[in-house]
Specification:
8-stranded mixed β-sheet; disordered C terminus; globular; alpha/beta
Length: 729
């Protein structure tokens, strides 16, 4: 017995010794690094990403897809003949690929999407104030995603390591062989992918497919290639490329409904962009631990069902990676955000646009202004708004920030609205304006002094606090409406409220499901699609014929709808959406990732659901497949037409008759309050601002708020209105 145990011990000792010997060789260490990174990648795929893997074949492709690009990239280290440089190069590549996949993990947790080159390059313009939200995305398992890297470092450089770096020079043929192996493996991987998903790289709008079949490393490289191609497209575009766009726009145009055309003619436009506000909040009551029900957004609910409101219950956000900025691109221009990264950062500075601001100024003499209590460079707004022809942009430079009145994404909503009034009342009427709220932003923090609503009890802080900050936003909106009524602006305005994007990501929807009366085990792609619904409320004081419409539509439809309500014809405008009131309105809702919702079918990846019942159509007939294929074709045409406009900057080749031309050099967002005062002073009795029509008396004192930060303070940060500067030459 003792002899048998000794033999077993010797065999194990020999195996350990052999393993040490293998790992001490350059190729052995290289192979071990490849295996570690491969297994880590597969673990991340399973734990962090929702890639929609169906069947053993797709699971097999997912399992092997990290190998090829890992071998190819790591083979770079084998080209260094000297030992220290070779190992150093391997660690540099290992660190960068680990950083890439981990960055995608963090990004996916918040956006349910993958990092693109455009997003990475534009990170500097979207990085202000995101530290706390990034910290909130961390998970205990993240340690595991870096442990392999530190294990390799220990094995290579620690004096206590059982292996030693191989000092011998490496023959170049081994490096070439490794690179060739990586390319061969990738060719095999691609062949398997194409057999399961034909034209994978040519047809899909969905990044999930590329990652599922070919991996994160390849997706990043492929995205970089597409980005370079897009840049080339702009350089090579000419006027003839606009012909297809105009043909689509003319065929897609929906004539206005005479019952609603012009009902808000001549009125001011006030957009309230409700941060992360989803449709399920409308009329939702949260049950607390004692079984008592609490209405989350009572004031917005009252607007939604108001006799002066046109509201839409099947209305969807259509944003991509730009999220809030994408919603602005959709609402301001009836164009989709970019398929890669954020359109504001990619195209906002240099492209030509024909925005709501430009159309309204040209057609009806509107002045435009945007209000946002965050830094102007966030999402490149300070440059993009100039390209949109927006006259005034009040960013963080125009607000009084203290430690108690700000959040990571800007000023708290109640204080933001209150401090905005000093600027709003100076705008010449009619004006087109938008207020961008931020308090209901992930990770939904709110200090105790402002909390007067119970949190949910799911155990997920993001979900639990979401209802608290949504209630705070509702109170802020009510205070703003009270001011509009007290100041006299209310009757002269159309107030449009809309949710900019989802607040609870798909990754958290199963935790939210019980609060919505759904079974988490039965949650599926249809439910995720429904969760993309956001409210859209066109509130027209005095209309009297308000209604909650069951029409299907999305943010791309908001501009043509608004223009027709204002009595402005859109026949010559380049709009991807159609009027929600029109009998010719296209009810197919296209999402940036290629999914579709229509009154009849909801398409999530390759799965088809009956929209009315929510049931999956397990064995679709050929008729159903043909209908869905047509819906996909229509959606793809809308997306691709929009993409061609942005990517090639095609609007520079087309100017509708009467549209005023802009030069961004004419826009300057400095000292705007002083400029407005001077304009009103120069116009004298012809001045149309609220301040001027109010006998040159400020309406700021009319604003009432229960914000604890402003208790016992008299108009802190508000300008002195009794002194109007002398006009300058």
């Amino acid at each position: 017995m003792a002899r048998t145990s000794l033999c077993v011990f010797k065999k194990e000792a020999i195996s350990v010794s052999q393993l040490k010997h293998v790992l001490s060789k350059r190729l052995g260490f290289f192979t071990f690094a490849v295996i570690l990174f491969w297994l880590k990648s597969y673990l991340v795929y399973q734990v962090e990403f929702e890639l929609g893997v169906e069947g053993l074949f797709q699971e097999f492709i997912l399992f092997i897809n990290p190998i090829a690009t890992t071998v190819f990239l790591f083979s770079i280290a084998l080209y260094f003949t000297k030992s220290k440089k070779a190992y150093g190069a391997l660690f540099v590549v290992y660190f960068l690929t680990s950083l890439l996949i981990y960055s995608n993990v963090l990004y996916y947790r918040e956006f349910s999407d993958f990092l693109t080159i455009s997003t990475i390059l534009g990170a500097g313009k979207v990085s202000n104030g995101i530290g706390a939200s990034a910290f909130a995305l961390l998970r205990p398992q993240d340690i595991l995603y870096w442990s392999d890297f530190f294990l390799l470092l220990f094995m290579a450089y620690s004096k206590k390591s059982p292996i030693k770096m191989d000092p011998r020079p490496m023959l170049k043929r081994y490096a070439v062989a490794a690179t060739t192996l990586g390319m061969t493996l990738f060719a095999a991987n691609l062949a398997l992918a194409e057999s399961n998903r034909p034209q994978l790289l040519a047809r899909t709008f969905d990044r999930n497919y590329i990652v599922k079949y070919l991996g994160v490393n390849f997706f990043t490289a492929f995205d970089g290639y597409q980005t370079a191609q897009n840049n080339q497209m702009k350089a090579s575009a000419d006027e003839s490329d606009m012909e297809n766009v105009l043909s689509y726009v003319q065929d897609h145009h929906a004539e206005p409904n005479t019952d609603y055309y012009g009902v808000a003619e001549g009125k001011n436009v006030i957009y309230l962009q409700l941060e992360s506000f989803q449709q399920f909040l409308i009329d939702y009551q949260l049950e607390d631990e004692n079984g008592e029900l609490h209405e989350v957004t009572p004031f917005i609910n009252s607007l939604y069902d108001n006799q002066d409101s046109y509201s839409f219950e099947n209305f969807y956000n259509q944003v991509g990676q730009g999220k809030t900025a994408d919603s602005e691109m959709l609402v301001e221009n009836s164009l989709f955000g970019s398929s890669q990264g954020g359109a504001f950062t990619q195209y906002g500075t240099a492209n030509t646009f024909q925005s709501a601001s430009q159309i309204l100024r040209s057609e009806a003499g509107y002045t435009s202004a945007m209000f946002h209590g965050n830094v102007g460079s966030f999402w490149n707004r300070d440059n993009t708004y100039k390209s949109f022809g927006i006259d005034y942009f009040f960013d963080d430079e125009y607000y009084t920030f203290t430690e108690e009145n700000k959040l990571e994404y800007g000023m708290k909503d109640k204080i933001f609205f209150q401090e905005s009034i000093q600027y709003l009342e100076q705008l010449p009427q009619p004006f087109y304006s938008k207020f961008i709220t931020v308090s209901n932003h992930f990770p939904y923090p709110l200090d105790e002094a402002n909390v007067d609503f119970p949190a949910a009890t799911t155990g997920d802080n993001t979900i639990d606090n979401y209802f608290v900050t949504a209630h705070y936003l509702d109170q802020a909106v009510e205070e703003f409406f009270n001011y509009l009524k007290a100041s006299g602006l209310y009757e002269d305005s159309i107030i449009v409220l809309y949710g900019d994007h989802y607040g609870i990501s798909n990754a958290r929807n199963e935790s939210l499901a019980p609060l919505l009366g759904e079974d988490p085990e039965e949650w599926n792609g249809y439910n995720n699609a429904v969760m993309q619904e956001v409210p859209a409320i066109f509130h027209v004081p005095g209309a009297g014929n308000g209604e909650v419409f069951d029409t299907y539509g999305g943010q791309v439809d908001m501009l043509p709808t608004l223009l027709h309500l204002l009595g402005i014809e859109t026949t010559d405008n380049v709009l991807m959406g159609t009027d929600l009131f029109s009998e010719e309105h296209d009810e197919t809702v296209a999402f940036r990732n290629g999914d579709i919702v229509s009154p009849k079918y909801t398409v999530n990846g390759s799965v088809i659901y009956d929209t009315k019942t929510g049931e999956q159509i397990l064995e679709p007939s050929q008729e159903v497949l043909d209908e869905v294929e047509q819906l996909k074709a229509n959606a793809n045409q809308q997306l691709s037409t929009s993409d061609s406009i942005l990517q090639s900057d095609l609007l520079r080749f087309y100017t509708p008759e009467g549209l005023l031309q802009d030069d961004i050099a004419d826009y300057d967002y400095q000292n705007q309050l002083e400029k407005l005062k001077q304009i009103n002073e120069q116009l004298g009795e012809e001045a149309t601002s609220l301040y001027s029509r109010n006998g040159r008396q400020s309406t700021v004192p009319l604003y009432e708020t229960n914000a604890p930060e402003l208790a016992d303070k008299t108009n802190d940060g508000i300008a002195d209105y009794e002194t109007v500067p002398e006009p300058t030459e």
